[in-house]
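Sat 14:20. Reprocessing the chain from the morning session after the first attempt stalled halfway. Input below, unchanged.
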Amino acid sequence: MKRIRAACLLQTICFQPKDDEPAEYGKQKVRQEYETYKTQMTQRGTAFKILEEVAQPDGSIVVKLKKQYNQQAVGDYFD
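Finished this time. Tokens:
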């Protein structure tokens, strides 16, 4: 029988503004969406580690992160 001892996801997420929004408003909404995403992961007890966060000229934010998968132990993935 096999059992998962540790697991995590490596994700690259792009938070981007909608095309029909004014530039400054779009940037604010993107930042707010990103902060909400991080808050939700914390509230749900999902372990995560942000590896890279890059703000783009168009207001989008590209984030590379390691994230806990299905409440599995993360082992030494975050070290």
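The CA atoms of residues 49 and 78 lie 7 Å apart.
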